[in-house]
Amino acid sequence: MMKFIPLLLLAVSSSTANKPGSSYYESMKELEALEEVLNNIEEELDADFTGAAAVCDPIKYLNPKVLTHPDTDCCANDMCGEGELCRSFNYALMCYAADYQPWILPQICNDELIPGHSCNGGGGPKRELTCQQLTELSLEIIDDSQTECLSNADCMLKCRLFRDFLACDEYNHFIGEFSALCPPING
């Protein structure tokens, strides 16, 4: 679209009435202002595709079917684990890594539950079970051949204790069913 503006300006500038106060002169000023606005929009669009955070989705504008979809596990950001946000997948709301493609999977605007906007048909989302300290696990679990992680940092989202071994739960499919490892204690 920007390629046509200079041609339009060239066509208009070839007119003979290029003097202040003339309708042509005023039209030129308006076109120059329009070109500046279009340049700003183009810069903003470029920024959106270079990884800038997307604008959040207000929950009140979502289709109610999204809130009751079986895969919906959150309807507020504080319902998600550390480093996660409640993100819109268009058909459901799910806790997902905060820094993973924010321009494609926008977060929900509200951090806390909004009265009247419950998830999963009012049943509420799955909640994280009490986390497990790695130091409290047996060596059999840590050394198990199926164990693939020893901290949440080894995974995209969570390292979970699946009864006899530790494995990554990259999409939080097992939230509320199996405990995640606790974050390391610093200090």
Total of DSSP H or I helical runs spanning 4+ residues: 4
Rg, nearest Å? 26 Å
**How many β-strand stretches?**
4
Distance between the termini: 57 Å
Shape: elongated
> What are the low-pLDDT stretches, counting only 5+ consecutive residues below 50?
1-16, 47-53
Strand content: 5-15%
Main beta sheet strand tally, sense and closure: 2 strands, antiparallel
List keywords for this structure.
two-stranded antiparallel sheet; alpha+beta; 187 residues; 24% helix
Task: Tell me what you see in this structure.
- It is a single chain.
- With 187 residues, the protein is of the alpha+beta class.
- Helices cover 24% and strands 11% of the residues.
- The protein is built from 4 helices and 4 strands, in the order αααββαββ.
- The strands form 2 sheets. A two-stranded antiparallel sheet has the order 1-2. Strands 3-4 form a two-stranded antiparallel ribbon.
- The chain is elongated.
- The N and C termini lie far apart (57 Å).
- The N terminus is likely disordered.
